[in-house]
Amino acid sequence: MNIDGLKQINQDTVKKAVENKAFENGTIDGYMVAAIDGTKFFGSNKKNCSECLKSTKAEKIHYFHSGAVMPYGRYGS
Fold first, then answer.
1. Quick check: 41 and 66 in contact, CB under 8 A?
2. 62: which strand partners?
3. Which of 1, 10, 65, 71 is the most exposed place for a label (fewest CB within 10 A)?
């Protein structure tokens, strides 16, 4: 994965949002607020890979992948 490319996309997106004055409304004292949520993307009790996380409950192993995401959307306008 090209991290430098992702950084450039992020910088370009923020720059365009500032140019379009997207951050003037909906801020708290000029700061944007974002919620980050941990979530499980998919899981299995049978199939797994070397990158899987695992949890054990009642001697049964559950394999899964998870990550942190920032939900998109505008709440409470």
1. yes
2. 55
3. 1
The alpha helices in the chain, defined as continuous H runs, are 3-19
pTM of structure: 0.46
The mean pLDDT value for 17-33 works out to 72
CA distance 75 to 27: 12
Q: What number of helices (H) and strands (E) belong to the chain?
A: 1, 3
Name, in order, each residue with C-beta under 8 angstroms of 33's C-beta and a sequence gap of 6 or more: 27
φ and ψ at 51, to 5 degrees? -95, -5
Instruction: Return d(Cα 65, Cα 48) in angstroms, integer.
Output: 10
Does residue 11 surpass a pLDDT of 70? yes
Nearest to 22 by CA among 10, 35, 13, 34: 13
